[in-house]
């Protein structure tokens, strides 16, 4: 063989060697999943709602500006534990068994961390867990007991044998004297970020990819903000939703009662309407004020406290982004920002979540990963929280378990476009009923890009000939009226007109009911286990 041929073969072999080794060294993307509690899209600047002019979230906005914003991301059950269970399992509530706030997720059903570990990832969770059983499927955890405290919280760490008193945890009703954990001093948003940064810097194996689930407590009620933000927005007027004062044809007999007899009971309010729970009570507003002035003052104080908590979250998101940037991790880390559900900020005179209405059902969802996502991308593709785990597993190169009911939207991240066969509706079910003095009737429904159909069936699934008074308040015994609601979100994005009884929408109603019935069957969300509920639903279907 001549010298020229030998040189050619050598160069080919050498090139192949370097290519193979480059591929071996190519790192899988890290994943930083940041989730706040009750942080609604109306309070995130990039979503362009009425609060955007206040610039409440410049650092969170950066994730969307440098990545993709999902306009139609929804939860399937707008309450903390069920939403978190859906994110961890890729399953709807009836399938994963977490229907309400007393649901638990055992380690064998913590599918997301299990699958990520199988795919070579280190798994860690810091902050709020709220699923009763410990997150043992993670390699590392340091999480609150239950909801956790805003100030001087206790978190318990995997492998630690340290204990604290139940009083330090705020769990004095428990039948034990002490619980595992360490008491930290300061505000929870700062502490959770300190712990995540400590894990990133000192506790992870830096030769392996990671998924870190960083979960803030804020801005959950009752909005205990860091004192350093006490002057933030102090002199600002916070824009108010028109529907807080005038609600047109929103709602139904299911949310108001016969001739409005349940208006003072259903749906915790900003103003005096709900006599059991309203925000003016929490904000200590003078009860002798007129209804309108009481509502105005309660709202202004409520929103300032809420947005001060949001400010603390946003500043700590900056700390996380800064760490990744300084340590050359930023562009090889998929950064996700979301909330565990939406939240009512006075719309329709409601506070809290639970409702299938837009402000409660819609989740913020932003993703930054410059290797596949074009900056400033927006999509109206419908996704929900059962889709999060399949997508994360797919991006990481894993196989999506058959047990998962959600779908990967990796293709949307890569192209910014909705695939041809992509889902055109999302299913919702609030299983609890009139619980925790918020007074939300049990309901279910379906949302497409244009329409939302809701059935309020008004009965708690736990009630069988009586109520266990130790589980929820006795108000859950109240069976509320059954009614349907339909909203045309193209013509009525603020959901001010329930058009269910409008003759021109009757064909739409029939079509949506068919889709709803099919979706419930497909997702194992029917009520064979709950014959009393099934009877109510079937008797009122038409």
Instruction: Detail the poorly predicted runs.
Output: 18-24, 464-472
Strand content: 15-25%
Largest sheet: 10 strands, mixed
Gyration radius over CA: 24 Å
- Based on CA inertia axes, which overall geometry fits? globular
The secondary-structure class comes to alpha/beta
Task: Describe what this molecule looks like in 3D.
This protein has 542 residues and is α/β, with parallel strands linked by helices. The protein has 15 helices and 18 strands. It has helices at 3-25, 58-65, 80-89, 93-96, 111-118, 166-169, 188-203, 253-256, 279-283, 291-326, 358-361, 388-395, 410-415, 506-522, 531-539, and strands spanning 30-36, 68-74, 122-127, 140-144, 154-157, 163-165, 178-180, 182-183, 210-215, 333-339, 344-345, 351-352, 365-368, 377-384, 425-430, 443-448, 451-456, 483-488. It has a ten-stranded mixed β-sheet, sandwiched between helices. A hairpin with a 5-residue loop joins strand 11 and strand 12. It is globular and about 85 Å long.
